[in-house]
Amino acid sequence: MVHSFADDAQLYIETKVQPLECFYRLKLNPDKSEVIWLGTRQKLAKLSLADKTLQLHDRTLTASATVCNLGVQLDNELNFDDQA
Predict the structure, then answer these.
(1) What is the pTM of this model?
(2) CA distances (Å), 3 to each of 8, 9, 17, in order?
């Protein structure tokens, strides 16, 4: 699923832990891209370091524990504890 805004696009993919294939020819800027895995604490604990990375062009992106989405801080367990 892709959400597009004026100068922003968000790509959501539901996947099992496996290499991700092509992004439907969507060109992503690795300097402006973030990766976050969402799941329960138990599921997230099973991810290896390799699972937490995504190769995008010539850069390797490492998953973050939190990201900002339209001003809302999201954490990987969706518990919203980081809201001010």
Answers:
(1) 0.67
(2) 8, 6, 23
